[in-house]
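Task: sequence design from structure.
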């Protein structure tokens, strides 16, 4: 047996032992790596006598208080399950699920393995799939509907029931300060790509502050948000092609719904996706923006204020820029935050988001027109 094979077998045995913490009576028949995410490690666990479940190793470099995530997830799933049970919710005329947290035999909602890694198990959203790139206009509408439904269901969830699981998340001026510190202490190897990123950031000194200033002046208020509604975190039912669940609930916490709206649109309106090799061809598709916003507003219109509408365009532009800034900083810092497949991965990801930012800016008037038409 080669060393590599021995290593794989050891990992498998460890994984089975961890999965067994969350099963009783059933036998684990298979464990496979599952889905694509930039932060956690995700596995699908198949059992002989019960439905499969999702097993995840939480990235504790990113989430240094993982127990808080689990507490939040329990509060959230109890709250949403209750709301879903209230038949008076006229907007729910479809299958809609929220992942349930599974417990260990000691009734804990996590398991800490021998190497100190932090694991959790959640129910599997069956007969569904998520996509890394947008499929068509209907998919866009469903992505919007999914986020709208999620906001609708958590709209009255008191924010003080939720802990802040990731301090500074989506506070763009904070990312900018960190970037400036990294730039001032790092020897940067110049290239046309790196120079492009540096210039995109230095040319936009006011942009990072747009949502935080609106928050400080009381125009936008803090509510419960998802935090990470990119398209592969919205599950689509395989039979109906309708949105059926929002997953990746680690960043459900107090924030601005504009972080969610902006993130959902920057993710859904980039047809080439956020991993394309062709970053120069990336653009923002206004037709998809219309579809996503239509889907979103069909459920969420009631709780948006006039000021909320006024900041939708800014939020789309900002969230694309912010993600570019986060990827670029991580590249300069030696890739300590996002999972990567090769050393230039975060640089390529940054180029994609910055190109998207430029495309959003070039189409400012038509994007604002769409928003106005839907209001
Ligand atoms: P990350 O934080 O790394 O992005 P996610 O929680 O988004 O991890 O999970 C990664 C992928 O695994 C998702 O994009 C999705 O395809 C799949 N997945 C995660 N949770 C579930 C679930 N409860 N049911 C079905 N698929 C899931
Ligand atoms: C990360 O976990 P994942 O892959 O769904 C990141 C998001 C980024 C996204 C970009 C906690 O999301 O903020 O927008 O990558 N999540 C965290 O793909 O930082
Ligand atoms: Mg995810």
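Answer:
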């Amino acid at each position: 047996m080669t060393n590599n094979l021995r290593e794989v077998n050891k990992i498998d045995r460890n994984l089975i032992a961890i999965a067994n913490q969350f099963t009783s009576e059933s036998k684990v028949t298979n464990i496979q790596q599952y889905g694509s995410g930039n932060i956690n490690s995700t596995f699908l666990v198949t059992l002989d006598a019960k439905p499969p479940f999702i097993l995840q190793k939480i990235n504790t470099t990113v989430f240094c208080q993982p127990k808080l995530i689990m507490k939040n997830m329990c509060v959230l799933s109890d709250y949403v399950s209750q709301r879903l049970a209230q038949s008076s919710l006229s907007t729910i005329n479809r299958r809609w699920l929220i992942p349930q947290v599974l417990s260990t035999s000691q009734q804990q909602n996590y398991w800490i393995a021998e190497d100190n890694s932090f694991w959790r198990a959640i129910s599997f959203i069956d007969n569904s799939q998520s996509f890394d790139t947008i499929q068509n206009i209907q998919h866009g509408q469903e992505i919007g509907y999914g986020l709208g439904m999620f906001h609708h269901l958590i709209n009255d969830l008191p924010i003080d029931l939720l802990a802040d699981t990731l301090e500074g998340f989506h506070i763009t001026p904070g990312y900018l300060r960190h970037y400036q510190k990294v730039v001032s202490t790092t020897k940067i190897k110049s290239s046309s790509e790196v120079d492009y990123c540096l210039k995109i950031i230095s040319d936009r000194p006011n942009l990072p502050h747009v949502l935080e200033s609106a928050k400080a002046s009381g125009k936008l208020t803090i509510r419960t948000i998802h935090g990470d509604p990119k398209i592969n975190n919205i599950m689509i039912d395989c039979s109906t092609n309708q949105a059926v669940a929002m997953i990746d609930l680690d960043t459900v916490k107090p924030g601005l719904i504009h972080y969610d709206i902006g993130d959902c649109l920057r993710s859904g309106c980039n047809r080439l996706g956020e991993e394309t090799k062709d970053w120069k061809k990336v653009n923002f598709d206004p037709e998809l923006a219309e579809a996503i916003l239509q889907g979103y507003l069909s459920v969420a219109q009631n709780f948006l204020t006039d000021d909320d509408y006024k900041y939708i365009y800014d939020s789309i532009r900002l969230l694309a820029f912010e993600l570019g800034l986060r990827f670029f900083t991580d590249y300069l810092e030696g890739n300590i935050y996002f999972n990567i497949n090769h050393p230039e991965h975060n640089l390529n990801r940054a180029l994609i988001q910055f190109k998207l930012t430029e495309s959003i800016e070039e189409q400012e008037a038509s994007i604002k027109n769409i928003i106005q038409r839907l209001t």
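The chain is about 45% helix and 10% strand.
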